[in-house]
Amino acid sequence: MFPRLLTVPAFEVMGRSLGPFTLHTYGFLLAIAFLVGLWVASRQARRAGLDASRVTDLAVWVLIAGLIGAKLLLVIVDWRYFAASPHQLSSIIQSGGVFYGGLIGGALVAWWYARRHALPGWRTADVLAPGVVVGQAIGRLGCFAAGCCWGKSSSVPWAVTFTDVYAARAVGTPMDTPLHPSQLYESLATFLIFAFLLWLAPRKSFHGQVALSYVALYSAARFALEFLRGDPDRGSWLGGVVSTSQLIALVLLFGAALLLPRVRRSQGIAAA
Predict the structure, then answer these.
(1) Residue 149 and residue 140: Cα distance in Å, rounded?
(2) H/E element holding 18?
(3) How confident is the model at residue 272 (pLDDT cuts 50, 70, 90)?
(4) Is pLDDT above 50 for 246?
(5) Helix ranges restricted to H, 147-231
(6) Distance of CA 130 to the CA centre of its chain
(7) 269 is a domain residue
């Protein structure tokens, strides 16, 4: 755990005291994730014969919508907590939110932008998917550094123990308790999905295959990894069997499974 990358002590400028200023590791890695995601999307766009600058503009809008959507879903999931303590709403500024809220928000804005600027929908989605998933992979490293999204107690040899009091105060990370490194599990899973999507992109048999494969693979991975998450207030559905993220993962997984053959047939490609 390394929540603070750099802290600049307080100093005076023209008689005025400024600082101290802290650069949080999570925020730094989130910025890196965004830049890498943009770079990947731009390269994929050029390879696909799309306007790279237009796709980059789209990616910026998707990022903004994703940040808003993730925080909105966080408020929805933890509505009772925020309703009882409305002053805690300001804390969502520092929180990454719930990823699926960001995915849904980003997808809606991407659909709107593509229609407005006459971008081919499924081809554009295929270009964006690798950039999104590599951003997730880097972002989860930020979660690990910050101590959020922690796993359940575990005795596995690779269990991690967080000891930073600052992170415990900021996000409630359990101290001195061996935990599943759930953040690293998801980071590894998304890096593997990213590698597969890069392999698939030049070999795809129809437009939309890369994007729908991303949705299906990530949803399956997220559903499984949720069982190892230990942070509270994850939502409870189907009699407490699944969390909010698992419910959304199931919906998206089955939705992708249904769409894959339909999109393939719509482009006049017969199944092998």
Answers:
(1) 9
(2) strand 16-18
(3) very low
(4) yes
(5) 165-171, 182-200, 209-225
(6) 12
(7) no
Is 220 in a helix, a strand, or coil? helix
Q: Which domain holds residue 124?
A: 4-264
Total structural domains within the chain = 1
Residue 168 binned pLDDT confidence (cut-offs 50, 70, 90)? confident
Give the CA dihedral 70, 110, 192, 96, nearest 10 degrees.
Answer: -20
Question: pLDDT tens across 116-144, in order?
Answer: 988 999 999 999 999 999 999 999 999 89
In the chain, what percentage of residues exceed pLDDT 70? 89
Instruction: Tell the residue number behind the tokens 């698939």, with chain if given.
Output: 200
User: Which amino acid is it at 163?
Assistant: T
Instruction: Give the predicted TM-score (pTM) of the model.
Output: 0.86
Average pLDDT over residues 232-256: 87
Provide DSSP, 40-78: HHHHHHHHTTS-HHHHHHHHHHHHHHHHHHHHHHHHHHT
Residue that is written with structure tokens 């499924």 in the block: 122
Dihedral of CA atoms 112, 118, 122, 127 in degrees, nearest 10, equals: -90
Q: Which residue has the tokens 């966080």?
A: 74
Q: What is the pLDDT of residue 24?
A: 81
Beta bridge partners of 161: none
Asked whether residue 271 is assigned to any structural domain, the reply reads no
Q: Which residues make Cβ contacts (< 8 Å) with residue 130, sequence separation at least 6? A: 40, 41, 44, 194, 197, 198, 201, 210, 214
Structure tokens at 218: 């990530």
